[in-house]
Structures are given as C-alpha cells and as structure tokens.
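Why do we care about 3D structure at all? Because function follows from shape, and shape follows, mostly, from sequence. That is the central idea of this module. The next example makes it concrete: a single protein chain, its amino acid sequence, and then its structure expressed as tokens.
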Amino acid sequence: METHFWHERWHRREIGFHRSEIHWALKRHWDEISGGRAGRVMVPLCGKSLDLRWLAERGHGVVGVELSGRAVEEFYREWKKAPTCTRSGRLQHWRAGNVEIFEGDFFDYLNDEPFQMFYDRAALVALPQEMRGRYIDHLGSLLADNASGLLVTFEYDQASMDGPPFSVPADELGDYPGFRFELIERRDALADHPGFAQRGLTDLQECAWRVIPV
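And the structure:
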C-alpha cells in the first residue's frame, strides 16, 4: 500500500471504490452519529466521494485528506466549484465552499482544532492489517475527547480475495483500545458489489459502526 499504488489506480482509472451515489450508511445513520450538530467533519482518504458534498449540504465544515491530486481536482470540477490551493506543510490545501481537501499522505496531516466528528467509508478498509493500527492512532490524535464517528467496514473470507478493500473482522476492532466500536447495522452487500463476486467472493457483509474515543 505504498503511495504509488494509489496514484497508479487513479491514473489507470481503476477506481471501483468510487460510488456514484451517497453511501447508504451515511444517509441512514449520520443524524444519529452527529446528534444534530453541524460541526467540522474529518473524512480520511476521501477520494472524490459524493459523500463530501452531502455532508457539506447539511451545514458541516468538511475536511478531507486525499493522496491523489487527480481525485481532488475531479471532485471540485464535478461539483462545479473553483477551489483555491495553497501549501500547508507537506500537503496541498484545496478549498471551495465549506469543503477543504488536503492533498497528500494522511499521516502528514496535522490539525490545530480537534474534530468533533469523522466519517470513514473507505480508509480503514483500504489498508492492510499491519497499517491499520497506525491509522487508528493517527485518527485518534485528530479528534476531540467527546467526538463520534461513522465507520464502514467489509467482512469476508480474506483468503478468497486480495484487498483492497480488505476484510476488517469485528474482533479486530477490539484490538484498538483508543475507541469503542458499536455495531449499528450489518447487511449482505455482495449484490451491491458484483465485481467482488467476479474476484471469487461468495459472501460479503458491509458493517456500519458508531465509533467513540475512550
């Protein structure tokens, strides 16, 4: 999962992880996660997700982090917004409306003000197991003590298909002591991802979790 892997995926347009509609878990559960607050939301490894726009339209200040400059440019172009772009440490800082995207490595992102909320649809599952603990630790460093977040994971037989996206079993989440993970919904998702069946999967579960720092 070196940086060139993701740059190459965007260059070759191998972006099956990009969805053309708002994620079901966001629409169904975000009000519960946010508690009706319209604060700032951290979205790691955000790509050019339409979910960013959905959150922004509900009054949130949205801050994404994305490795691919092509993804960032496409996000604002498809949104028909003209962003500003400035340097911020090791990252490029793009901004238009109430959506900011920092282009670069998520582990290089540092914030001045802790986030009250976060949304992870495609970050944790994009990382192999040996990188996930480091990701969780860095995410935790960006959050306020009373923060809450929505996490989406996949569960499947990892031996049947190479990631990404990777399977993140429920018992693994218990290995991350900085957070409490509460399962909100689990659904059979194989029909929604026909490409996974072509790669050998016969069962795919998609899980939505409420996440709270402890």
